[in-house]
Amino acid sequence: MAGATRPATVRERVADSDRSVGRLLLVAAGALFWGWLVVSWVNRWLGGVLVPVGDPLVPPGAVEATLAAIPGIAAYAADAAFVVELSPEIARGTWLTVVITAASLVVGFFIAVPLAVTRVYGRFSAWVSLAYTELLRGTPLLAQLFVLHYGLNLGSYVPDTLSGVFARNVVWVAIVGFTLNGAAYQAEYIRGAIESVEEGQITAGRAIGLSKLETIYYVVLPQGLRYAIPSWTNEFVYLIKYSSLAAFITVPELYYRADQIASETFRYTLIFIVTGVTYLALVLTASKLMERVESRVSIPGLGVDRER
Amino acid sequence: MAAGWTVALAAVESAAAGAPPIGGAPAIIGDAADWEFVFRNADYLGVGVLLTVGLTVASILLGFVVGFPAGAVEVYGGGYLKRAVNAAGVVLRGTPIVVILIVMYFVVGVPQINLGVVSISSAVTAGILGLGLRSAAYQSQIFRASLASVDAGQLEAGRSIGLSRLEAVRYVVVPQALRRSIPGFQNEFTIVLKDTSIVFAIGLAELLTRGYDLFSERTTAVLEVILFISAIYFVLTFTTNRALDYLGDYYAIPEGESA
Amino acid sequence: MSDDGFLRVADVSKWYGDEQVLHDVSFEMDRGDVTVLIGPSGSGKSTMLRCVNRLAEAQEGSILLDGEEVLSPDLDVNDLRREVGMVFQGFNLFAHLTAVGNVALGPRRVLGLSEAAARERAEAQLERVGLGDQFDSYPAELSGGQQQRVGIARALAMEPKLLLFDEPTSALDPELIGEVLEVMHGLVDEGMTMLVVTHEMSFAREVADEIVFLDDGRVVERGPPDQLFERPERERTGRFLERIASHD
């Protein structure tokens, strides 16, 4: 409400500048996080052009020395150096987390749209779609991954052309698992959004001579998919977090790497806090990104301002 | 290779290092002897089901006890309390449940609780705390939305008949908001139920962990075991959903929206 | 009147489940005619209108449009609809498209015009309804009257041989009705064949070649406006017109 008008009181102005400082800090932290990630990845791909592969971007010793010189933070200098030391492994694991999430989300989307459309407009296919979504939403994701990995040993069926892409073929199994699971959830969100598109839109489409399928494609989906963005963002965030379950079918993503280092160094607290923060950064990036997308594609004149 | 892994990953990794999971093309229906193995161990899995259900109920309750006030603070509160609740929510909702569980187990290091008659292992306590607090973060959002959705005029009307602000919230807004939160709550309930499987990570012997133990023991029965426990999970989520549907209908305000 | 029988509606009946909503409705109109369907709400006027472009399915009777049987099961409804335009009570503009996008969608996707040609046609039609300055506005940014004019332009862009109006001004605030009626007047002057459901009696009187009064799914009376308004043959018609007049 008050966002549009000028802050009146001193207190509001202070709060306002507080918020903008907070926003600035958040953006700076985000830039630092993604800068670190991208530089680490590129360094690894190019065989260590900046620093040898496996080494942190900045020497831990230097970090420790610098921080030790600052009063107040000095006590944490050793911890900071340790975090810097394990940063290459974190970056490495995060790469797989990002890839698995992105691939599953995108492929899942293209399965989810037909699922949602058949659920709303189909007859027999509506039942197939319903059965699929209920089954996948009604069982734990971890159990589904176990079915694919231990039950069906899907990793042994990875075609040769895809086989070398990742260090372990089981990454493909994880992608398949998250895709199938995510498709069910995405379909549910998209279905809800499609159903919220007014009936008159379809009537109008049919009245100018579009077929039913054309009306869905040109009229219903462009609106429905826009309406789906907020809930779809939830699924995006869920997928980032649940991609950690891939560790339990031996996919060396972020959580797996963290667990590996923790068991070697016994520094559980620090490592899992860093891991948690890394996931949090990914999640916040995703939701900020989707907020951007939502406002970019919002239909002018239609109030799409979400609750804060 | 790693020296020692945190509980579950160690098992998973050694399974991977040893013989790969069953080879060849598994039959969809499975093997009769393997199904027999599953049913022979049904009581073992049954204890797992009890743990799963217990864990779910305890976590949901903890989530409610913490989440409802948190939601109220986000709507009616202000200042640092609101900020703190908000920040805690963002962290809990933005971190994978497996990380939360590990942190509870290893970092917070919840001790074993001895109640004299029964003792609750630290894994169970960590599981309930992790799942419960994470659920609280989500439940607070559900209650926040439903509290905010109750028309402001309701609060005013309550005040106009002489109720205090707290009383008006308690007797007028909350009863309406709780009804409206049933669909969101339903969703949350099934999420917690399914996510109890992730306490696998801290080696708590609920349904999925017991399933894992079973098929590790008899590797030919992998598919049979997982399908069997998946079916149990499905029945649990399905009946929970129907039960909450019924609850929603039962408490629906006549002629009003049940949502 | 040339009496070419451009649209012949004969004994059309329709049921919703057990309830019969149209009873043997019959009327004809020629090319260039304006026929107005009037009647109380729930009398079946809108349903009758929708049977003509098969948005509603009549179970019995015949509707011949330019000699072709509309109700034939072999007819491609999409072919029919590209020749019969429709303007809705609630506008039903495509919410995600601009004014031009709304009007161009049919020409682009149904008629297969190029992007540029479809846009050109859309702009021309928007000019025609007096919206030359609103090409890139979205429906939610337009007033009701402007939205309905976009709706008319959208129907016109298909170059229909028959235009159906389903209570085009009923959802509008009184001060916005005029601009829509003005556009419709213009179309009448251009010789457009129009079948109109409306409660705007003065408009009906002014432009209609024939008025069809429907009540309870039946044609009670039909005839030229002067006759129907001045000397209704049926008592029910008179009562309805009186009731409407007292509202104006």
Automatic annotation (TrEMBL), chain A:
InterPro entries: AA_ABC_transptr_permease_3TM (IPR010065), ArtM/GltK/GlnP/TcyL/YhdX-like (IPR043429), MetI-like (IPR000515), MetI-like_sf (IPR035906). It is a multi-pass membrane protein. Coiled coil: none annotated. Residues 94-290 form the ABC transmembrane type-1 domain. It comes from the Archaea. The chain crosses the membrane at residues 21-42, 62-84, 96-121, 170-187, 236-256, 268-287. One of its GO terms (cellular component) is ATP-binding cassette (ABC) transporter complex. GO terms for molecular function: transmembrane transporter activity. The keyword Translocase does not apply. NCBIfam families: HEQRo_perm_3TM. PANTHER family: L-CYSTINE TRANSPORT SYSTEM PERMEASE PROTEIN TCYL (PTHR30614:SF0), MEMBRANE COMPONENT OF AMINO ACID ABC TRANSPORTER (PTHR30614). This is Polar amino acid ABC transporter permease. It comes from Halorubrum aidingense JCM 13560.
TrEMBL record, chain B:
Residues 49-238 form the ABC transmembrane type-1 domain. The keyword DNA repair does not apply. It is a multi-pass membrane protein. It comes from the Archaea. GO terms for biological process: amino acid transport. CDD domains: TM_PBP2. The keyword Membrane applies. Its main location: membrane. It is found in: Cell membrane. PROSITE patterns: ABC_TM1. Keywords: Amino-acid transport, Cell membrane, Membrane, Transmembrane, Transmembrane helix, Transport. GO terms for molecular function: transmembrane transporter activity. Belongs to the binding-protein-dependent transport system permease family. PANTHER family: L-CYSTINE TRANSPORT SYSTEM PERMEASE PROTEIN TCYL, MEMBRANE COMPONENT OF AMINO ACID ABC TRANSPORTER. This is Polar amino acid ABC transporter permease. It comes from Halorubrum aidingense JCM 13560.
From TrEMBL, chain C:
It comes from the Archaea. PROSITE patterns: ABC_TRANSPORTER_1, ABC_TRANSPORTER_2. SMART domains: AAA (SM00382). Its main location: membrane. InterPro entries: AAA+_ATPase, ABC_ATPase_HisP-typ, ABC_transporter-like_ATP-bd, ABC_transporter-like_CS, MetN_ABC_transporter-like, P-loop_NTPase. Residues 7-241 form the ABC transporter domain. Keywords: Amino-acid transport, ATP-binding, Cell membrane, Membrane, Nucleotide-binding, Transport. It is a peripheral membrane protein. SUPFAM superfamilies: P-loop containing nucleoside triphosphate hydrolases (SSF52540). GO terms for molecular function: ABC-type amino acid transporter activity; ATP binding; ATP hydrolysis activity. Coiled coil: none annotated. It is found in: Cell membrane. One of its GO terms (cellular component) is plasma membrane. PANTHER family: AMINO ACID IMPORT ATP-BINDING PROTEIN, GLUTAMATE_ASPARTATE IMPORT ATP-BINDING PROTEIN GLTL. This is ABC transporter. It comes from Halorubrum aidingense JCM 13560.
